[in-house]
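Title: Comparing notes on inverse folding

I've been comparing how different people in this forum approach sequence design from structure. To keep things fair, I'm posting one structure and asking everyone to reply with a full sequence. Here's the target:
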């Protein structure tokens, strides 16, 4: 009797079990191969990401270096050119709001002769125009361009400043050719 009960119990357990997958070893091998391939792809992607991040860090470092070099050189030219254009005074470029030059803003501080140092926004229209001209030509002095097209840049200038502007243009003609669109007879 105990044997019959045990046999019946074992048969019942066998019936409750689902069928055995005879292809399981092949499926396991296929899935293991796929997993190995995907892990290899993941490793390749991780290596590519690391290479890309290293390249970005190198480019950012080089960009910071070049920006700072150019900023310093243009700032020196601007400091020298501004008093020449205005017949005195001083001006400078200042990086603002960040330790990282690539994220910083640039302020223009100018002190025309007889005035106190102030931000560009506080200058008169003619002073702003001359300051902007000084800054543009500071870039030209740093890295001359063969041609320069200026459209009505002398419009806000009075006669004295038009004369200064014209002298500046004359002094720059060794490096560049200027095409000036103007209505000012003195500039023409």
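Reply #1:
Here's my take.
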């Amino acid at each position: 009797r105990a044997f019959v009960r045990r046999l019946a119990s074992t048969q019942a357990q066998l019936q409750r079990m689902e069928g055995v997958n005879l292809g399981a070893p092949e499926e396991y091998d296929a899935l293991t191969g796929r997993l190995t391939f995907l892990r290899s792809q993941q490793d390749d992607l991780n290596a590519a990401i690391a290479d890309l991040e290293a390249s970005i860090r190198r480019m950012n470092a080089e960009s910071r270096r070049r920006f700072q070099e150019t900023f310093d050189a243009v700032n020196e030219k601007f400091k020298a050119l501004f008093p020449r254009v205005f017949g005195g005074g001083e001006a400078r470029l200042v990086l603002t709001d960040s330790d990282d030059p690539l994220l910083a803003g640039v302020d223009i501080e100018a002190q025309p002769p007889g005035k106190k140092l102030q931000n560009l926004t506080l200058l008169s229209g003619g002073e702003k125009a001359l300051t902007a001209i000084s800054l543009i030509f500071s870039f030209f002095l740093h890295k001359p361009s063969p041609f320069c097209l200026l459209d009505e840049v002398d419009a806000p200038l009075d006669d004295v400043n038009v004369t200064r502007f014209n002298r500046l243009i004359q002094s720059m003609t060794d490096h560049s050719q200027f095409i000036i669109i103007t209505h000012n007879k003195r500039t023409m």
